[in-house]
Amino acid sequence: MSIIISNLQSVHQRIEQAAERCGRDPQTIQLVAVSKTVPATRILEAYRAGQIAFAENYLQESVEKITQLNSLQTNIEWHFIGPIQRNKTRNIAQLFSWVHTVERLQIAQRLSEQRPEHLPALNICLQVNTSKETSKSGVNADEVLELAQQIAVLPRLKLRGLMTIPAPETDAIKQQQSFKQLRLLLKDLQNSGLALDTLSMGMSADLEAAIAQGATMVRIGTAIFGDRVTSAG
Ligand SMILES: *Cc1c(COP(=O)(O)O)cnc(C)c1O
After folding, report:
1. DSSP secondary structure string, 134-185?
2. Which of 108, 136, 181, 215 has its CA 20 to 30 A from that of 172?
3. Which atom belonging to ligand 1 lies closest to the Cα atom of 205?
4. What residue spans of the chain are helical by DSSP H?
């Protein structure tokens, strides 16, 4: 069995065990395979093993891979999880089903305007800065509600929930703090009337902590594809 296939099985096992420990149904947690720096051939291998959702951080790198894999009649669901530059929104709106890293209204407006008519609304998560001291990306917690309300009304977007990338933390209890903050924030938004269902949180090193706090999508790279050789990401 190839290493990617056995890695995928291990990750599914970790998700199931983490879900069991907190009494959650593992089916409510979607595995998103992070394929930045991973060549198309290896993405295809994971896809043929049953993995459908893949996430990319760098537009330039992903355009080529997406074009190549789409030409093979795959039905991969592409997620964008990198920083979004203003001049990249058109390609993102055309190529992806999900964008996890929206942190400004202007970017959301462009994605909505540029989403092609023949495609369903683009699924959006707002990136929240839950580790204020160490991270510069993401909206601050006290600005999330206003931004969510502004984005929820954009016609070609479907606001789904929140995403965070906490500062790396090895202690399991400390890992949960940012995730708990995100869970409570989502609850606030839901209580204010927004119909949201997604918590995108948890990576290779902390997926258990994220699941314990309600993650509905975990974004896993290294544990599936191995260590990234380039410095990117
Ligand atoms: C790279 C990346 C991941 C995956 O991280 P791993 O530790 O390799 O699992 C998840 N989310 C984002 C936003 C990333 O950039």
Report:
1. T---SB-GGGHHHHHHHHHT-TTEEEEEEE--PPP--SHHHHHHHHHHHHHH
2. 136
3. 7
4. 3-21, 40-48, 59-70, 89-95, 105-114, 144-152, 172-191, 207-212, 222-225
Q: Does the Cβ of 81 fall within 6 Å of ligand 1?
A: yes
Question: Is residue 137 lining ligand 1, measured as CB closer than 6 Å?
Answer: no
Which of 34, 71, 28, 35 is closest to 198 using CA atoms? 28
How many angstroms separate the CA atoms of 149 and 193, rounded?
9
User: Is the pTM above the cut of 0.90?
Assistant: yes
Between the CA of 81 and the centroid of ligand 1 the distance, in Å, is: 8
Block means of pLDDT (10 residues each) for the chain, length 233 residues? 94 98 98 98 97 97 96 95 97 98 98 98 98 85 98 98 94 93 98 98 97 98 90 47
